[in-house]
Amino acid sequence: MSVSLLLAVGVLFAAGTVLLLERTLTRVLLGVMLLGNGANLLVLAAARPGAPPIVGAADPAEMTDPLPQAMILTAIVITLGMTAFLLALAYRSWLLTGHDEVQDDAEDRRVRELADRDEGSDAEALEAAR
């Protein structure tokens, strides 16, 4: 495995993670795609290179294992399905709200307000009871 390949995997994972943490669905979609491509590249880089796995074309000990390529093809199909689903979500959000930004949940806002006021924690009450 070469250093440049590992560097490319690291960049794809880092950029994908940053984009996945955004509120806009299109950026989340790009993050999922970058993470998927990074994972595929990592699996491909971890595979042992060798001759094509065609019976009679090479010595079986020199053939490459076809399992990583099969796993990558499966991951590509799964990523395509997730991409289509996220595109449908972004399009639906665009139709309903005029943007594709994910809003805060009302319960999340309430929990954050309680945490800011320090009323949601029972730690002080438990300490006082001791």
From TrEMBL:
It comes from the Bacteria. GO terms for cellular component: plasma membrane. Residues 121-130 have a biased composition (Acidic residues). Keywords: Cell membrane, Membrane, Transmembrane, Transmembrane helix. Pfam families: Oxidored_q2. PANTHER family: ANTIPORTER SUBUNIT MNHC2-RELATED (PTHR34583:SF2). It is found in: Cell membrane. Residues 107-120 have a biased composition (Basic and acidic residues). InterPro entries: CPA3_antiporter_subunitC, NUOK/Mnh_C1-like. The keyword Electron transport does not apply. It is a multi-pass membrane protein. Residues 106-130 are annotated as: Disordered. This is Multicomponent Na+:H+ antiporter subunit C.
